[in-house]
Design brief:
heterotrimer; A mainly alpha; B mainly alpha; C alpha+beta; A: mainly alpha; Formate dehydrogenase/DMSO reductase fold; 14 helices; globular; C: alpha+beta; Alpha-Beta Plaits; three-stranded mixed sheet; three-stranded antiparallel sheet
Chain lengths: ~425, ~160, ~240
């Protein structure tokens, strides 16, 4: 029994060894790295370009990018047949392979984001550390808190004006350097697919660019969505804290939120237009040039996957949110479903590329159907099934909550 | 210059990875004959593949002990078929296995003897039957002798 | 250091004609001679320890039937491990297609195996150096190093690679390297009763296979992918996928 037989159904003439080898985890991986890249670009819009309304959301986006980054290698570990050998990618990298870039790029990018976070929160770390240092009877939790915060200060305890100015400069440099690295992080994921000449659907030089653009769309959308949710929570909590201060705080929160949201949506629309243009360009080119593979691709795109591509990805995932966001008088109530649809659209794009590319045989005369394992009957059907996908989807939020304990984004003002 | 502290941490991590690498990778891993693109591998793997167990020995090996059978077959119409195709791989026979399990199933013979007239293919030149219409379900060896495949031994069973 | 070497490898790939080894394996498939018995597939599976009833194989045989109306039917029932014992075409999903004899204009069998390409795209994409091309031109997989990412399987234009059901690493035909390195023939070549499969050394001027490749009308499969395959076919008709 071949493992991939569990979720592959072949039709007509397919080579014996062809199965859907790259399943849901390989869909999740570019989705996660896309969110990472997108969140970082959003953060850099403030830290590098100084777009004022984005100040609040920028710091939050950076922390969330880091949480997502920690989760990003997980889909790969769940997919690999030998995850215990995963470090070989770093030990004996074969750089002619796009996947080998993973080790280096991830490490460099993680360094940049971690460093930028450090500079952003150094003042807070020092303040907490010094406050707890003086305390004589520390509880267990406080001992841990003291230990973690002190280690993370890396001994740089000077929080004078001049010192903080250096921090701000470092943040700007890192935000600048980080943008091309973030683009490379997700661009290489697109290159992984775009460079496979054996796959008629994947093979296009546009693939890395399409991936980067839709990555930014997804990252911006997710950060804005979570930001809105947090702001709404704050608004909900504010009246309970103090009745008099409530109305002022409420107005303040509302104001900041609307400003940030409107600016972010502007950039989101821009990247959405870019992203959809590239995808439509690819489709138009293929149908116009009509090379040998076009017959089978047409059957897949306009037949088998019509609902997945045109209804779910283009209509629900692009057109609907586009209309929702562009109609005048944008409210939070309208923005939230629009953002959810955007995220859904980007996820479907990843699905349609990864699974779609394996929906047809190399013979160009056969098809393969992917049936996502819903109920896990074994470790494999959990890892490469709905369970594994949900685990990956939920983990960044849990990690974000943990990281927020050390790098609080919701209350403290940072160095920016 | 406290701004460089994160950089030191990163460099330290990189150093740890490089040190771990030198312990973990075998010495013979590197760029070999075909260059980096096609020849980046662990040299000792070649020897490992060369030592992979051979299962099929070939009819010369069978003929060492089973000379009689081999000679009989050499003048028969099945002379081009390897002994092991029907009798299975010799492995370390006669040490292990002591006897080879012969596939007597009907399906073995039908591989060639299902009549398929395919223009341009040599398959058309092989005499055959329509499996559903010729003694359906019976072993071919009941009437035919594979080592002397000229006429059925028993007709009208 | 590695990066420079890597870049050099991409922009100036080694000139394959200038190989110093006196040995370069090539394979010859004669689709006129193949009778579709499937003994090659059986021998390959047993020789190379691929579980017999698993629906993957290092080699297989395809059948093509072309009708008078110009329709092409193709199948490879269970990789032809049990041969072709019925005239019905097997398009999968438990259905079968009956083609009346008088409508068949031409029909033939095409054995397929790893092309051991001179410029293997599968080797190019391996992130860890688990698959490689050795000095004789055979592409091998290091079972102890493969991490199981599956990139090589996606990169092969011929669909030759698969995950080994037991070892859970990438696997593919390697011309039975353990046999040819000691002068034996690959299991499939030995098992073939008609001589439809042959192996030779293209560098040897007296090698019969080399001679056929140099003097007869032969073709390779899917040359447009630029992988420079080393399996040559006699009678590779345009219907062949």
């Amino acid at each position: 029994m071949v493992l991939e037989e569990l979720w592959t159904v072949k039709e007509l003439f397919v080579y014996p060894n062809e199965y859907i080898y790259w399943a849901i985890q390989i869909v999740m991986y570019p989705f996660m790295t896309g969110l990472v890249a997108g969140a970082f670009v959003l953060s850099s819009l403030y830290h590098l370009f100084g777009i004022k309304p984005l100040k609040e959301i920028a710091r939050f986006a950076l922390v969330f990018s880091f949480a997502l980054l920690m989760v990003a290698p997980l889909p790969l570990l769940l997919h690999l047949a030998h995850p215990e050998r995963s470090l070989y990618v770093v030990f004996t990298p074969h750089f002619t392979s796009a996947i080998a870039a993973f080790g280096v790029v991830l490490f460099v990018y993680a360094s940049v984001v971690a460093s930028e976070l450090w500079f952003l929160f150094r003042k807070h770390l020092v303040e907490v550390s010094l406050k707890l240092k003086g305390k004589t009877n520390k509880s267990m939790a406080e001992k841990i808190k003291y230990g973690v915060h002190t280690i993370l200060t890396l001994g740089a305890l000077d929080v004078s004006e001049a010192s903080l100015k250096l921090d701000a400069k470092a943040i700007r440099i890192l935000a600048g350097a980080g943008v091309p690295i973030a683009c490379f992080l997700h661009g290489y994921a697109g290159f992984i697919f775009g460079s496979v000449k054996a796959n008629a659907l994947w093979m296009t030089p546009l693939m890395p660019v399409i991936f980067i653009m839709s990555a930014i769309v997804s990252g911006v959308a997710l950060c804005l969505l979570i930001y809105i949710i947090i702001m709404e929570m704050k608004k909900f909590i504010a009246p309970r804290k103090s009745a008099t201060a409530a109305s002022n705080t409420l107005k303040e929160i509302k104001g900041v939120e609307m400003n940030a949201m409107q600016t972010t949506v502007k950039y989101l629309i821009f990247f959405m237009i870019f992203s959809i243009s590239l995808e439509l360009l690819d489709l138009v080119f293929r149908s116009y040039t009509a090379v040998k593979s076009w017959d089978i691709l047409r059957n897949v795109i306009y037949g088998k996957d019509f609902i997945n591509i045109f209804l779910l990805q283009y209509a629900l995932g692009n057109l609907a949110p586009f209309i929702l966001l562009l109609l005048p008088g944008l409210t939070v109530r309208r923005a939230v479903p629009a953002l959810l649809l955007v995220l859904f659209g980007v996820f479907m794009m990843r699905w349609n590329v990864v699974i779609g590319g394996q929906s047809f045989s190399l013979t160009f005369s056969g098809y393969m159907d992917y049936q996502l394992p819903i109920i896990p009957r074994s470790l494999e059907t959990f890892k490469e099934g709905l369970g594994g996908a949900l685990l990956i989807a939920v983990l960044p939020f849990i990690l974000f909550w943990i990281i927020n304990k050390i790098f609080p984004v919701l209350e403290t003002k940072g160095t920016d | 210059m406290h701004v460089l502290r994160p950089l030191y941490v990163v460099l330290a991590l990189a150093a740890i990875i490089l040190i771990a690498k030198s312990f973990w990778i075998p010495n013979d891993f590197g760029t070999h004959e075909q260059g980096y693109t096609y020849g980046w591998y662990r040299q000792s793997n070649i020897e490992e593949w060369k030592n992979f167990t051979v299962k099929y020995r070939g009819r010369e090996f069978c003929g060492i002990c089973h000379a009689g059978q081999a000679q009989k077959l050499a003048s028969a119409q099945h002379k081009d078929i390897e002994c092991e195709n029907c009798h299975g791989p010799a492995l370390s026979h006669p040490a292990d296995p002591l006897k080879l399990v012969l596939d007597r199933s009907r399906e073995l013979c039908l591989r060639c003897h299902t009549r398929l007239f395919y223009p341009t293919s040599q398959r058309s030149q092989i005499k055959g039957v329509s499996p559903d219409q010729h003694n359906f379900g019976l072993e071919c060896a009941l009437c035919h002798k594979p080592h002397e495949a000229s006429r059925p031994v028993r007709r009208n069973r | 250091m590695v990066l420079v070497k890597g870049l050099d490898g991409i922009f100036r790939p080694p000139d394959v004609q200038a190989w110093t080894s006196p040995l370069r394996f090539v394979f010859l498939v004669d689709t006129y001679k193949c009778i579709g018995c499937g003994f090659c597939v059986k021998a390959c599976k047993l020789e190379n320890e691929i579980p017999f009833t698993a629906d993957v194989s290092r080699t297989w045989v395809e059948r093509y039937v072309v009708t008078s109306e110009g329709e092409v039917f193709a199948d490879t029932p269970k990789e032809a491990r049990n041969g072709f014992i019925t005239g019905q075409i097997d398009p999968g999903r438990g259905k079968f297609k009956d083609i009346p004899q008088e409508k068949i204009k031409k029909a033939f069998f095409v054995p397929k195996l790893c092309n051991q390409c001179a410029k293997p795209s599968c080797v190019q994409v391996c992130p860890v150096g688990a698959t490689y091309q050795n000095a004789d031109g055979v592409v091998l997989v290091d079972r102890k190093w493969c991490i199981g990412c599956g990139y090589c399987i996606m990169a092969c234009p011929y669909g030759m690679r698969f995950f080994h059901p037991v070892h859970h690493v990438a696997d593919k035909c390697n011309f039975c390297y353990h046999r040819i390195s000691q002068g034996m023939k690959p299991a499939c070549v030995q098992a073939c009763p008609t001589g439809a499969r042959q192996i030779g050394n293209i560098k040897d001027p007296r090698d019969p296979v080399g001679n056929i490749v140099r003097t007869q009308r032969v073709a390779v499969h899917k040359p447009e992918y630029g992988t420079d395959p080393q399996v040559y076919f006699i009678g590779l008709s345009e219907e062949v996928r």
